[in-house]
């Protein structure tokens, strides 16, 4: 098991601008055949982030859009984009976001 730490800057002209968001990436021995587990530390309040901090994103799910050819920069850019453009069709936890 390998564990990396990464920082994602908030996108310009977004709610997240000016912030730097830490996360851990955990790789199993099966990487790149299986995606890394990406987790915000500390946890972000976001529709696509579980209470544990784990990111809910299709490219991080081997049963959905994961491809072994995805690079770490592509994964981090995908997460940065998700921060600004939540996927309402795939919430990590639906109940807290229902008005």
Automatic annotation (TrEMBL):
<dbReference type="InterPro" id="IPR000608">
    <property type="entry name" value="UBC"/>
</dbReference>
<feature type="domain" description="UBC core">
    <location>
        <begin position="1"/>
        <end position="99"/>
    </location>
</feature>
<dbReference type="InterPro" id="IPR023313">
    <property type="entry name" value="UBQ-conjugating_AS"/>
</dbReference>
<feature type="active site" description="Glycyl thioester intermediate">
    <location>
        <position position="56"/>
    </location>
</feature>
<keyword id="KW-0808">Transferase</keyword>
<keyword id="KW-0833">Ubl conjugation pathway</keyword>
<dbReference type="GO" id="GO:0005524">
    <property type="term" value="F:ATP binding"/>
</dbReference>
<dbReference type="Pfam" id="PF00179">
    <property type="entry name" value="UQ_con"/>
</dbReference>
<comment type="similarity">
    <text>Belongs to the ubiquitin-conjugating enzyme family.</text>
</comment>
<protein>
    <recommendedName>
        <fullName>UBC core domain-containing protein</fullName>
    </recommendedName>
</protein>
<keyword id="KW-0067">ATP-binding</keyword>
<dbReference type="InterPro" id="IPR050113">
    <property type="entry name" value="Ub_conjugating_enzyme"/>
</dbReference>
<keyword id="KW-0547">Nucleotide-binding</keyword>
<dbReference type="GO" id="GO:0016740">
    <property type="term" value="F:transferase activity"/>
</dbReference>
<dbReference type="InterPro" id="IPR016135">
    <property type="entry name" value="UBQ-conjugating_enzyme/RWD"/>
</dbReference>
């Amino acid at each position: 098991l390998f564990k990396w730490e990464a920082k994602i800057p908030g996108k310009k002209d977004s709610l997240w601008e000016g912030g730097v968001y830490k996360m851990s990436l955990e790789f199993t021995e099966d990487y790149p055949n299986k995606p890394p587990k990406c987790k915000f530390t500390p946890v972000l309040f976001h529709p696509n982030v579980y209470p544990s901090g784990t990111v809910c994103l299709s490219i991080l799910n081997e049963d959905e859009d994961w491809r072994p050819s995805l690079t770490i920069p592509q994964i981090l850019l995908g997460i940065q984009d998700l921060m600004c453009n939540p996927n309402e069709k795939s919430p990590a936890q639906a109940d807290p976001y229902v008005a």
